[in-house]
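Please describe the entry underneath.
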Amino acid sequence: MDYPHQIDCVWLATNSTGQLAAMITAGEGPIPESVLAHDFDMLDIEGALLDLPVIAEARLIEQIPDPSSFLALSLRGLFVYDWTDLHRIRAEAVRAYELVSVPSIQASLRTLPAELRSVACEVDAVFGSPFVIVDGYWRQRV
């Protein structure tokens, strides 16, 4: 799949402990090559995540105009990060996904349906930390 330009989409991240995070691109954030190359259409990931059962309460970390979609993902046990550089001038860019909402109970990779497990990309991060830093194996909007 080509990079989904100007489309605010979600990709699924996991880490070495099996925590899960929904990474929202804001139409510009970097996406791992493995997610773009996967057979599962990344434009369907958010819908598949929202089909998961509600297992937690959600807490908003950053104030944003309409937090409903972020909170809906956290209700399913996901940490939610957003590519906020979209709203910054280049000199102030953090080049990282920023934490927006957190679940009270965490979902884990092993509890996901097989098709979502297969599309999750492992990143070197502790979810719940303020930022997930972008590194070299990601493709960004050109």
Remarks:
- The longest strand covers residues 96-103.
- Helices lie at 33-37, 45-50, 68-74, 114-119.
- Residues 68-74 form the longest helix (7 residues).
- The chain has four helices and nine strands.
